[in-house]
Amino acid sequence: MFQIEDCRIIYKKDLRVLADGFSLTVHPGDKIALIGEEGNGKSTLLKWMYDPALVEDYAEVHGKRLAGRERLGYLPQELSAEDKEKTVYAYMTEERLFTEMNPAEIAELGRKCGLDPEVFYDERRLGSFSGGEKLKIETARILASMPTVFLLDEPSNDLDIATLEWMEKLIRDTKAGVVYISHDEVLLENTANRIVHMELFKRKTESRITVMNVSYAEYVKRREDLFDRQMMMARSDRREEKIRMEKFRRIQQKVEHDLRSVSRQDPHGGFLLKKKMRSVKSMEKRFERERENMTDVPEKEEAILFHFENSQPVPEGKTVLDFRLDELRTPGEERVLAKNIELFVRGPRKVCIIGKNGSGKTTLLKKIREELKDRKDLRAAYMPQNYEDLLEMEKTPVEYLAPERTTEKITKVRKCLGAMKYTTDEMDHAIRELSGGQKAKVFLLKMVLDEADVLLLDEPTRNFSPLSAPVIREVLKEFPGAIIAVSHDRRFLAEVPDQIYELTKEGLKKKEGAL
Q1: What residues make up the domain containing 347?
Q2: What is the CATH number of the domain that holds 162?
Q3: Read out DSSP for 332-354?
Q4: Which residue among 250, 274, 292 closes a domain?
Q5: How far apart are CA 322 and CA 226, in angstroms?
Q6: What strand order describes the sheet that includes 16-26?
Q7: Which residues lie across from 380 on neighbouring strands?
Q8: How far apart are CA 451 and CA 401, in angstroms?
Q9: Stretch 173-177: mean pLDDT, rounded?
Q10: Are 277 and 358 found together in one domain?
Q11: End of a domain among 193, 219, 245?
Q12: Cα radius of gyration (the chain)
């Protein structure tokens, strides 16, 4: 049994409290989904649960962490730069129990992770693999350690649909306790039996953590029901209070008027009015006590506000892309990934490309970007899977989005960032200090400010919370221009694209019907 008791997390840079008095016990078989908006401290909490040293540079944490004899397996959201430079073999052999496995056990480990066991002996750098392949190798090393508690930070990121289903099965079927962060609503619905929701209110100055021992779908329903019920009670209390206070003020004004008008020759009348005024004062105190006991107006962290306000529609007959490629090769031109690729996009179509991990989807999207970036008749904007490819990490979001540094542009950028739930302090943090979701918001805002009419999106919803992802999907669905996206988000695939293609070794194959 793994426990944390009375945990308090303070972000050192701005002294923001991310958790206060939070306690949690992880039992065998628990599937605990840790949800919340970007930057609310989910990854920080998970890191501290695994190893307090991982957060001591940027967060101050108080509280008890009781691991006992539990073996913890931790999957970080991003591989470290150091690990990316290691060969797969060196990375795997750092886990002592892997070196003690016999060939049959290694083969079984590969089967569980959907990997050829030979990959564990590969001398290629880990960073040269696709995102999904890296995650499978990381998961294999964790499984080799035989953990009793899994701590998984975004285990669904970068996985193809088949591997997503494998990850769901792994979480659902393991007898170990699992605490995981995920923004994948389908994964949450199919696996979680407990929910921990981290929220920040009042410009992120107050924190609240809600724990419910229910499924994700049930949690969402209960949360909305509780909010609606409390809001109705709060409004009812305030209506009644308004009626009471109007009646009270009429009585008070009448008594005060009568007191001013009473004749000095009528001492008995004056005495009765003074007695009546004492009753009025007593009534006022009673109303003040009742006001203190009124139902509070409920607070919940709202989703982001976001829309493309100035992007122009792409005409129906306009050719956005007429792309042909004989061979798609890996970035180093070492091997052929696919042949005879053709993609034609006309008008404001929304196209999504799916495919197995390592099939070359990201490489293909980069090729399409090269095709479109110099077009004068279109404004194409690109959101990479690896944000560091384009973001200037030492700049603040304001500096990156308003390079002209004019007062008008800075004011507009700050207003947009505020709508995306950035605090004033976060607007002035270096981009490298921001969460994955906050970095993704910077890309989306740049697309808005550049008035793009063609969006090239590599896993656009991968870092957005279950609160924000529906907003992103709705905005992209209503976007008046064209979209060419790579995604494995099953909700995104069901709601946004009008055409889906699978990238295979033989090229792009159009998908018909439900996935």
Answers
A1: 319-510
A2: 3.40.50.300
A3: TS-SEEEEEEEEEEESS-EEEEE
A4: 292
A5: 51
A6: 16-26, 2-11, 59-66
A7: 454
A8: 13
A9: 94
A10: no
A11: 219
A12: 29
